[in-house]
Specification:
Blueprint (H helix, E strand, L loop, with lengths): L1 H20 L1 E5 L4 E4 L11 E5 L4 E8 L2 E7 L2 E6 L3 E3 L9 E10 L3 E8 L5 E6 L4 E7 L1 E3 L4 E3 L6 E10 L2 E8 L7 E5 L5 E7 L10 E6 L17 H18 L4 E4 L9 H11 L3 E8 L9 E4 L6 H11 L6 E5 L13 E9 L3 H7 L2 H21 L2
Parallel strand pairs: 8-12, 8-13, 18-19, 18-20, 20-23, 21-22
Antiparallel strand pairs: 1-4, 1-7, 2-3, 4-5, 5-6, 8-9, 9-17, 10-11, 11-15, 14-15, 16-17, 21-23
The chain binds zinc ion.
Zinc ion binds next to loops.
């Protein structure tokens, strides 16, 4: 009996492992992403990267709504099942190679393009002091024998590669300016060429900047509720967003984009897709905070990527002059609209609707104007700090 059990176990394990190790899939949709693990909180699991569509991944396991995908010998990640389609025509190869690299620019962006055997998964990281990008390409082994650099590249100072593991190729990019203005990663629609698109700084004059303003929640998504007033976050976030729009126009900004101007239901995905299309220089998201502990109060600004931190620090500094307590400047924040790398963004959690004193301020229309003025002051002082 024992022996039979063992044989059954052995064969089921073997079949299981064999079927899974050859299950190749491709990413699908505009917002496929990888997560580090299966951890979860109210913002979802910690995201590693967004991925372009049609990127190949090798599925090695499956838990609930996610596939575990093998990125390289030593790295794995989790991909939502909704963002993957089977790719039965694809056979995993023992290795993939990188080809030539080209660095160049057009009117608005610099580019690094990397020729690859296949649309492989990748992730990027911003570095500061000195400013730059590290792009890890999983499964790729270097066969890059030249990096052609053209004078049309204005923001990228240096590009070089490093084989950090046998099957992980890192592309280092050194930037000219200290401040990051965003980057995008995507594949050429016809070829297996990975593009790193780097945004150059806009003109120093704030009036030339394109500002996107996002009023949190909306429609069926009401957000948090006032402690005593029972007002909804969606309503007051929109009132403040509209004041910010006015303040920006008064300051001379001609190009202001609002994700919503009415009580509209908008998913995070819809907002991200729209914002990517608009391609603003800055995004300010406005929310009101809430806690189950009603003594917690204060104002805070949030960023996800280290290269985007300075904007959020300048805005917080000016918000604090409104007499609000400091809740803090929060980094690595997994808020959906802090996720895009394409443009700088700052989430402002103006104050706590769940705190009596903060709530009284939030209810006043003069306070909405003050918040808008302080955010604009923060943006202006940030612009002056740039080199
Ligand atoms: Zn909110």
């Amino acid at each position: 009996m024992k022996q039979v059990m063992f044989i059954v176990f052995f064969f089921s394990f073997f079949l299981h492992a064999d079927a899974q190790s050859f299950r190749m899939m491709r990413t699908k949709g505009a917002l496929a992403y990888l997560e580090f693990g299966l951890g979860d909180d109210r913002l979802g699991g910690a995201k590693m990267t967004y991925l372009d569509s049609n990127v190949i991944v090798q599925v090695v396991d499956s838990v609930k709504d996610d596939y575990k995908v093998k990125l390289s010998e030593r790295h794995a990640a989790w991909l939502p099942k909704t963002a993957a389609v089977p790719a039965p025509d694809v056979r995993p190869r023992p290795y993939y190679l990188s080809g030539s690299i080209k660095v160049y620019g057009d009117e608005r962006y610099d580019y690094v393009s990397v020729l690859l055997d296949e649309r492989l998964p990748y992730r990027s990281q911003q570095t500061i002091e000195p400013s730059g990008l590290q792009i890890d390409i999983y499964g790729a082994t270097s066969n890059t024998n030249w990096i052609t650099q053209l004078g049309s590249a204005k923001e990228i100072l240096q590009t070089w590669t490093e084989q950090v593991e046998d099957d992980v190729l890192r592309v280092h990019i050194r930037l000219k300016h200290q401040q990051h203005w965003g980057h995008a990663l995507y594949y050429d629609s016809l070829y297996k060429r990975l593009y790193v698109r780097v945004k150059r700084p806009p003109e120093k004059d704030v009036r030339k900047w394109k500002l996107a303003i996002d009023a949190g929640h909306g429609g069926s998504n009401t957000g948090s509720t006032g402690l005593t007033s029972k007002v909804t976050e969606k309503t007051y976030a929109l009132l403040m967003a509209k004041e910010l729009e006015q303040a920006a126009k008064k300051a001379g900004l001609k190009n202001v984009y609002m994700t919503r101007t009415k009580d509209t239901t908008l998913s995070m995905e819809e907002r991200i897709v729209a914002l990517r299309k608009e391609d603003p220089d800055l995004l300010i998201s406005i929310h009101l905070n809430s806690s189950s502990v009603d003594t917690i109060q204060g104002t805070s600004t949030f960023y996800r990527y280290i290269g985007f931190r300075p904007l959020s620090q300048h805005i917080l500094k000016h918000m604090l002059t409104l007499g609000l307590k400091e809740y803090g400047n929060v980094g690595n924040f997994n808020f959906a609209l802090s996720g895009p790398t394409e443009f700088q963004n700052c989430l402002v959690e103006v104050a706590f609707l769940s705190n009596r004193s903060d709530e009284q301020k939030i209810l006043r229309s003069s306070f909405h104007k003050s918040v808008a003025r302080k955010i604009m002051e923060g943006i202006r002082s940030y612009s002056k700090s740039l080199q």
